[in-house]
Design goal:
Elements: E1 10-11, E2 19-20, E3 43-50, E4 53-61, H1 65-68, E5 75-80, H2 84-97, H3 105-119
Antiparallel strand pairs: 1-2, 3-4, 4-5
Helix pairs in contact: 2-3
């Protein structure tokens, strides 16, 4: 309740839904369903970049009670494979088989696909130069 209308993560603009940048929010919409701060079970997909290499990171909340008191160690990050078949299988294993936020499976898979397409770069077509005589 305390982060519903006031939070440093909120992004408000006119004629737009209230968005949020909080860690663990899968859709970016400020709603209790997607919130990474107010839910016991958190699910987030994000991208990290080290040099030229980009990786997909799945964020969940730790099940250990001792980590809940330490905000830095509260979230558990694990890498997701970039191969579509293996990555989607990895997501479904964590969420569906592990009974972890099964209501967000479809949304997580859509976001995974969007992240994968964002990695693809358009090929630049070089036009041959024409010389004047």
């Amino acid at each position: 309740e305390c982060v519903k209308s006031n939070s440093c993560f909120l992004r408000k603009s006119p004629q737009m839904p209230v968005l949020t940048t909080e860690p663990g929010n899968l859709s970016g919409i400020n709603a209790c369903k997607y919130s990474g701060l107010s839910n016991k079970k958190v699910l987030g997909l994000s991208v990290t970049k080290k040099g030229k290499k980009e990786t997909i990171i799945l964020t969940t909340r730790s099940t250990q009670a001792s980590r809940a008191r330490r905000p830095r160690n509260m979230m558990v990050k694990m890498g997701i494979k970039k191969n579509s078949k293996k990555g989607l299988a990895q997501l479904s294993k964590v969420m569906d088989a592990g009974f972890y936020r099964r209501d967000l499976i479809k949304l997580a898979m859509q976001k995974y696909d969007k992240i994968k397409t964002s990695f693809k770069q358009k090929k630049t077509v070089r036009k041959p130069r024409t010389y004047r005589k």
